[in-house]
Amino acid sequence: MKIAVVGATGLVGTKMLQVLAERNFPVTELLLVASEKSVGKEITFKGKAYKVISVEDAIKQKADIALFSAGGSTSLEQAPLFAAAGTTVIDNSSAWRMDPTKKLVVPEVNADVLTPEDKIIANPNCSTIQMVVALKPLHDKYKIKRVVVSTYQSVTGTGVKAVDQLMNERNGIDGPMAYPYKIDLNVLPHIDVFTENGYTKEEMKMVKETNKIMGDDSIRVTATTVRIPVMGGHSESVNIEFANDFDLAEVRELLAKSPGIIVTDDVANLKYPMPLDAHDKDEVFVGRIRRDESQANTLNCWIVSDNLRKGAATNAVQIAEYLVANHLVGQAVLSE
């Protein structure tokens, strides 16, 4: 497979290369693409050095799959150019997520919606991905009516500038600010821009994307998204109201048997998911599983995942793996 990584020098692009290598994705040719200022720079993949090339060069080389993590405006402009050349684009930005003509995919939840005609596939928001992985088996069994989620999100979700801000503040160094306020020893109840209804774009993404991925607009979702001074992963406190009652032991067993989930729920021994444990792992960790005693048929849980991996790079690579395994991409595959 000829694979292009667009935005190869960024935090997520770098992680995409790491995940492709770790999972032994069948890369026979690799095209590394970044902005003009990075063209010619060398990046090592599986012990071999590759030079960063321009978008124009990459489009001409007609990759089978292009993994995009170069921002929304870049994706709106360039993804259709790759798609027109026959390349299947898996895009990590928010550009295509709510486009009714594009699929929004988390493989454990809804990979079966994909067809060979899908030339631009959207990778969901990081905080949505980890939540729906846990929601899917529960919805199938008990039917979810409403979700109340509060997130505690890593600075890595903002990018290198935010990581630098946190570490500079921790070390008493003045430097560029990714946030409007100090982040070290602080909490910002503000991710992305505020919209007219008082919610941020990040909060509204969680609402709309959950409905689209789950294929069920009847699920009501309300979110508060918060940036905290950690690295390694996003955490979420999730309250789920079901149409039907549940047994807690059955919930734990259901989650533990579901793909991509690790249940870490042993409060007697202080075992629960934390970003430190999720860092550099591909799974979604679920713990603090307990009944909401204030309302019938309602569950509380705590969900943690590495936002750069399952929340971005790994999910995109898993989509690519599904496309290859199901012969949905590449002329060589289709003609076998």
Topology at a glance:
Layout: E1 2-6, H1 11-22, E2 29-33, E3 42-45, E4 48-51, H2 55-60, E5 65-68, H3 72-84, E6 88-91, E7 103-104, H4 107-110, E8 120-122, H5 126-142, E9 144-153, H6 160-170, H7 201-214, E10 220-227, E11 234-242, H8 248-257, E12 261-263, H9 275-278, E13 284-291, E14 298-305, H10 309-325, H11 331-334
Parallel strand pairs: 1-2, 1-5, 5-6, 6-8, 7-8, 9-10, 12-13
Antiparallel strand pairs: 3-4, 9-11, 11-14, 13-14
Q: What are the salient characteristics of this protein?
A:
disordered C terminus; 6-stranded mixed β-sheet; 14 strands; alpha/beta; about 325 residues; globular; 6-stranded parallel β-sheet; 11 helices
Tally of individual helices: 11
With strands numbered from the N-terminus, the spatial order across the biggest sheet is 2-1-5-6-8-7
Helical content, roughly? 25-40%
**Shape category:** globular
Largest sheet: 6 strands, parallel
Q: Provide the succession of SSEs.
A: EHEEEHEHEEHEHEHHEEHEHEEHH
Q: Could you tell me the radius of gyration in angstroms?
A: 20 Å
Helix-strand makeup class: alpha/beta
Average pLDDT value? 96
Return residue spans where pLDDT drops below 50 for at least 5 consecutive residues. Answer: 332-336
N-end to C-end Cα span: 14 Å
**Which percent band covers the strand fraction?**
15-25%
* Number of beta strands: 14
